[in-house]
Write a structure and sequence with these properties.
The chain has helices spanning about 30-35, 60-65, and strands at about 1-10, 25-30, 40-45, 55-60, 75-80. By secondary structure, it is mainly beta. It has a single domain, classed as EutN/Ccml (OB fold (Dihydrolipoamide Acetyltransferase, E2P), Beta Barrel). Strands 1-2-3-5-4 form a five-stranded mixed barrel.
Length: about 90
C-alpha cells in the first residue's frame, strides 16, 4: 500500500464493462513511497477528491478491496488520510 496526493481526474467514456460507474483519479505518490516512479491512475472507492491525501492499494489487493475481482484494476484508493505524521 502506498500514500499519495490526488492531483487530478480521468474521464473515460468508453471502458471495460466491469468499470462502468467507476471514478478514476490521478494520484502522485509521495517520493518515500514509490521512489519517484510517477503518477498513477486509481479507481476511487471511497469518495476522495482533488488535493486529498489517500491510501492506495495496488495489484490484486486493489481488485479485492473494491469487490471487482473480474475488473482490470491495478490501483484503487481505499482510504483518505486524516493525519499522517512524517509522510512528506
Amino acid at each position: 500500500m502506498i500514500v499519495g496526493k490526488v492531483v487530478g481526474s480521468v474521464v473515460a467514456t468508453r471502458k471495460n464493462e466491469n468499470l462502468i460507474g467507476s471514478k478514476f483519479l490521478i494520484v502522485e505518490p509521495f517520493e518515500s513511497m514509490e521512489q519517484g516512479k510517477g503518477r498513477i491512475v486509481a479507481i476511487d472507492n471511497v469518495g476522495a477528491g482533488i488535493g486529498e491525501i489517500v491510501l492506495v492499494a495496488k495489484g490484486s489487493a486493489a481488485r479485492i478491496g473494491c469487490n471487482l475481482k473480474d475488473a482490470p484494476i491495478d490501483a484503487a484508493i481505499v482510504g483518505i488520510v486524516d493525519d499522517g505524521i512524517g509522510l512528506e
